[in-house]
Amino acid sequence: MTGLDSGAEPAAQAPQTGRQAHAGRRNFMRKVFFAGGATAVATMGGAGAWAALAADETGATASPDPSGAPTGGPGGPGNQSITEDFFGLTTDGKKIDDLFTVHSEGVATTPVIAAANAFLAGLSATQKSSTQFTVHSTEWRLWSNVDAYDRQGVSIADLSDEQQELGKALLKSALSADGLETTERIRRINQAAGEAIDNTDSFNEEAFYYTVLGTPSATEPWGFQFDGHHLVINYFVLGGQVVMSPCFWGSEPTEIEIDGTTVSVCKEEVKASLAFINSLTEAQRTVAIESTAKSNESMKAGAFADNTVQEYTGLRGNALTGTQKLKLIGIVEAFTGRAKADVARARLAEVRAHLNDTYVTWAGGIADDSAFYVRVHSPVVWVEVDCQAPGPLAGAYGASQGSGATQMHVHSVIRTPNGNDYGKELLRQHYLTSPHHR
């Protein structure tokens, strides 16, 4: 049995300090699947869902909600929780059907299965019990990019050197070289910035958590999550298919000197976004740019915003030239390129199939150093790049907190609208169609 809870919420523990500052987690209450009743079962699909729920009741991981909330800060509301069943991002509260189907996309998932099994095998029984959840657990949805948030799973700080190598091998099996390097740089900058403001209890390179959802398998659905400040990866696997979303990539600052070398991150999405907006004609920019002013925070579908309803706005893809379409794809590629090549290839095929129905919305300036916000939104992809105001790490780069949006503090996210974040739509279809679940 993994990740058991008692069903009751104990009092919050006193905060820890030092290297293990983020290693403690609050206990979580059972909620969504049991409170959701028929709605939750309908979402999961048929008798297989009832069997899955029964497994939770008889010993598998409950679907928890947080007993507490993060203290707030850029990137999300202070009172973060799950208050409704998962539905997914939509334009009007209604999902578009038949966008995603269970089929082999030729993705080689054997390496990530092996790496996940090795990682789990390397954990102690106690570590494993707090790290492995059922594939339909709401642990998928309990991620946050803010620092002051109690996460589940096992943190890098919890792991021995050997276990840390197994965790890194799991990330390496799922990510491209660029993706792995991006995760490492975000963590290193977080540590360096924490040192610069003398607060490594909150900002360090070890407060990043692994959880495994389900049992790694070549035929059954499962996945893993890597979750910490400015860095969240959700990775769902079903046979030869992978859904790597939602993923959050960010940093404050986006550039800092570490041991005499300038380390930068999140530059690809900024550069690609500016290349796109500057490829437009003046008439096209008039449609795409909703405001020349940039607010301190513009992101709409960050943490705890799984069911965001947002109508299409801005410039539509069918109004673009071939060259402009390539630059639009370039924004998405900055994110998909952080997965292995076969995963990225399958994802981009989906995006290209709906390119004419893709909308781009912009706010802010268009100069190389301008702060801006861009949203790329289609039936199958949602990308946001948001230059935010200096936050709690402002002192690390000589800025004043809240002094105006800047490229030195970037938040970005990629999602899959219409119900397939976390592979939820594929999971639903699997439960509906697989003979052993019916």
Q: How would you explain this protein's 3D organization?
A:
The model is unreliable at 1-79 (pLDDT under 50). Helices cover 30% and strands 17% of the residues. It starts with 28 loop residues before the first strand and ends in a 5-residue tail after the last helix. The protein has eleven helices and 17 strands. Strands 3, 4, 5, 6, 7, 8, 9, 12, 13, 14, 15, 16 and 17 form a 13-stranded mixed beta sheet that branches. Strands 1-2 form a two-stranded antiparallel ribbon. It is α+β, with helices and mostly antiparallel strands. Helix 1 packs antiparallel against helix 2 (46-57), helix 3 packs antiparallel against helix 5 (161-174) and helix 7 packs antiparallel against helix 9. A hairpin with a 2-residue loop joins strand 6 and strand 7.
Features:
alpha+beta; globular; disordered N terminus; 438 residues; two-stranded antiparallel ribbon; 13-stranded mixed sheet; 11 helices; single chain
Compose a concise summary of this entry.
The chain is α+β, with helices and mostly antiparallel strands and 438 residues long. It is 30% helix and 17% strand.
